């Protein structure tokens, strides 16, 4: 029998080759706490070094990614670049802080191709990271909280109120007040564990 002839046992309505359409993205990020261990290198290889992980859900990769970074470490506000200059060696070595080195490299003008050569991270992810940093570059002023469409775009890219306040030279409370004025509020959506368009017949 072909996949078209076989029934999907979860939905009992679609065929086995049916691919559900997703309206959300789920990201899991490991938590590294290498400072707790004596004589432990911060280089990440095949050995298990994470002390846990977090999972975040959002409507876009950028949103879910920034939410995950905030959940991993309370001192992190999001995918924020360092203020210092970074080197190619820092990019080519996988460490617990390389994700922020990537943010810095994008802020300093590294191209996607150059980053791919140094990190071997898939270009799709690099383009998504670049979307976040490009928004920071284009809108590091107070105009975000005065413009409804910009504020909405910032929230869709996963920026927190605190993060927006930092880049706007404003405060978290002022950003929140601006969001309330524009009726930009968080909301809850039901997550279908089958991730499908059809109702599941099993759990």
TrEMBL record:
Record's keyword annotation contains Amino-acid biosynthesis: no
InterPro entries xrefs: CarbamoylP_synth_lsu_oligo_sf, CPSase_lsu_oligo
GO MF annotations in UniProt: aspartate carbamoyltransferase activity; ATP binding; carbamoyl-phosphate synthase (glutamine-hydrolyzing) activity; dihydroorotase activity
Entry protein name: Carbamoyl-phosphate synthetase large subunit oligomerisation domain-containing protein
Any one GO BP annotation for this protein: 'de novo' pyrimidine nucleobase biosynthetic process
One CC-aspect GO term: cytosol
PANTHER family: CAD PROTEIN, CARBAMOYLTRANSFERASE FAMILY MEMBER
Keywords from the UniProt entry: ATP-binding, Ligase, Nucleotide-binding
Domain Carbamoyl-phosphate synthetase large subunit oligomerisation: 87-203
SUPFAM superfamilies named in the record: Carbamoyl phosphate synthetase, large subunit connection domain (SSF48108), Glutathione synthetase ATP-binding domain-like (SSF56059)
Keyword DNA-binding attached: no
